[in-house]
Amino acid sequence: MSNRPTRTRARIRALVVAVLVLAFAIPWTYAHIAYSWDWKEQSTDDACTGKYYLTPYDKQRSLELGTLSDGRVVLVGISGEVSMGRQIGSFGVSAFDDNDHSDTLGSARNLHRGDSATIDGVGTFTLKEAHSDIVWFTPNPGKATFCFDPDPTFTKQSYP
User: Which residue stretches of the chain are H helix?
Assistant: First the structure.
């Protein structure tokens, strides 16, 4: 009687275990390097003196920001991530009328901490900080905090 099938099964098991260990170890290592080390960009100042903070809560992806001078409601969607130690944030602004017709007013992608973008009639958005949501093997936008300085013609909601 030969031990050959037993050796083959043992090699297959060892190979499967090695693949599973690598499938866990590589993302785990990347996550700790990208999100936990001291070289991660640090926020040292308060960019929002006298202005408003905008941060989505939990998994909420859009906030009701206020109304334009023509009465349309404005929503802002915000996402963020930390990539190779750099804080990166993005946002998009849309306006809705009473009939739920929407118009994209503007957006900015891949702003670095401290960068600003202005949407005419709405205001200026400055990235204060960004955080990634870590979920293995799935794209999952994180959160970002923007400092919002409203345009004088824009009516801001009493929240957020």
Answer: 4-36
